[in-house]
Automatic annotation (TrEMBL):
InterPro entries: Plavaka
Protein's recorded name: Unplaced genomic scaffold GYMLUscaffold_104, whole genome shotgun sequence
Entries under Pfam families matching the protein: Plavaka
Domain of life: Eukaryota
Length: 52
């Protein structure tokens, strides 16, 4: 969780220019933080995840 929080702090302003990050193959890409949540009750969560 500390890594996720560090990345969000580094991203700073969500409307900003993003953050440059290095991919596994060495390429540098600009990424933008997106924080979203899907809220549902238990039966709906089961339907979404295809569980009984």
């Amino acid at each position: 969780m500390a890594i996720v929080l560090a990345l969000l702090k580094a991203a700073g302003d969500l409307d900003g220019d993003g953050v440059e990050m290095v991919r596994g193959d060495g390429a540098v890409k600009r990424v933008y933080a997106l924080l979203a949540a899907y809220v549902a009750d238990y039966p709906e969560q089961c339907l979404v995840t295809c569980m009984k």
